[in-house]
């Protein structure tokens, strides 16, 4: 497990059941509430979606800076570190929900995984929208916020779940990744799902494609081809990305030395970790520490 105890963590809160959580707010109301002050870099233990209608600023997700502007959708998975920095008041919606909320509303975990919208690590930009697409997603969001604020509407939670699913389906239809037409029960999809699970569990121990391929009883070449055909990156690239994200979080949010971080991430020699980090990012761990302090300020 990554040592992330120093990262601010926002946990779900719900009067009736903390595990079944949904919330939706207007971005302009959040801006007013915080008087325009940017929050510290933080992570959530729930899913977050930002539908941005109009904005000027930047959104930093796992140390990757994205322009915050009009007609965008951001998808932030649980555990990802992010920070919204606004130059002016943003307009749109912030939608948050727990996995249990999805389950209770018959939205399966498999459905979320198949969408390829939430990326737990890596470097995927926000989804850009046309005027018509923005209007459609705004309609779904307006319906959700009205239901969320209503206390006398029967089956409001189920209705919100239905609109949320429509929101995701519409986004998935716009997403370039959906063109691969991944079939839920295809052999390739099964490999992808098992690989992702292994990667989340073993990235601190297994750094080579062969280790994952052996666990899946396939060749490294087959694993790389399969993963690339579905998500656009090879298995090797995903492994490197997962390790680098873990390293960046530890470098920025802890006082551990490069040697200690390298050891925690499975590198037996400090020089190997430093070389790996610089090869993947172009900077040394110490230089990243300096530049990230500027980027996240």
The first-level CATH class of the largest domain is given as Mainly Beta
CATH superfamily of the largest domain: Regulatory protein AraC
Q: Which percent range fits the helix content? A: 40-55%
The strands making up the biggest β-sheet line up spatially as 2-9-4-7-10
Which structural class is indicated by helix and strand composition?
alpha+beta
Low-confidence stretches: 13-17, 177-182
Oligomeric nature of the chains: single chain
| Biggest β-sheet strands, sense, barrel | 5 strands, antiparallel
Number of strands: 10
SSE pattern, N- to C-terminal: EEHEEEEEEEHHEHHHHHHHHH
Mean pLDDT: 85
InterPro entries: AraC-bd, Homeodomain-like_sf, HTH-like, HTH_AraC, RmlC-like_jellyroll
GO molecular function: DNA-binding transcription factor activity; sequence-specific DNA binding
Protein name: AraC-like DNA-binding protein
Keywords: DNA-binding, Transcription, Transcription regulation
């Amino acid at each position: 497990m990554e040592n992330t105890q120093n990262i601010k963590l926002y946990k779900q809160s719900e009067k009736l059941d903390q595990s079944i959580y949904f919330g939706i707010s207007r971005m302009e109301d959040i801006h007013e509430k915080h008087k325009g002050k940017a929050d510290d870099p933080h992570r959530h233990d729930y899913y977050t979606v930002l539908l941005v209608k109009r904005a000027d600023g930047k959104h930093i997700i796992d140390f990757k800076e994205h322009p915050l502007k009009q007609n965008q959708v951001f998808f932030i998975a649980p555990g990802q570190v992010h920070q919204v920095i606004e130059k002016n008041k943003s307009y749109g919606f912030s939608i948050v929900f727990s996995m249990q909320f999805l389950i209770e509303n018959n939205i399966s975990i498999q459905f979320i995984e198949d969408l390829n919208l939430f990326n737990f690590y890596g470097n995927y930009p926000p989804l850009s929208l046309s005027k018509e697409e923005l209007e459609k997603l705004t309609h779904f969001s307006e319906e959700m916020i009205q239901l969320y604020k209503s206390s006398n509407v029967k089956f409001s939670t189920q209705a919100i779940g239905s609109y949320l699913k429509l929101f995701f389906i519409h986004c998935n239809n716009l997403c370039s990744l959906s063109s691969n037409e991944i079939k839920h029960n295809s052999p390739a999809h099964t490999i992808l799902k098992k690989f992702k699970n292994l990667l989340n569990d073993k990235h601190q121990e297994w750094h080579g494609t062969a280790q994952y391929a052996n666990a899946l009883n396939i060749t490294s070449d087959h694993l790389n081809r399969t993963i690339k055909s579905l998500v656009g990156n090879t298995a090797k690239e995903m492994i490197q990305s997962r390790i680098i994200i873990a390293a960046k979080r530890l470098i920025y949010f802890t006082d551990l030395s490069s040697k200690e971080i390298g050891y925690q991430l499975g590198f037996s020699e400090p020089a190997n970790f430093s070389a790996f980090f610089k090869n993947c990012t172009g900077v040394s761990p110490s230089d990243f520490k300096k530049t990230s302090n500027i980027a996240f300020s």
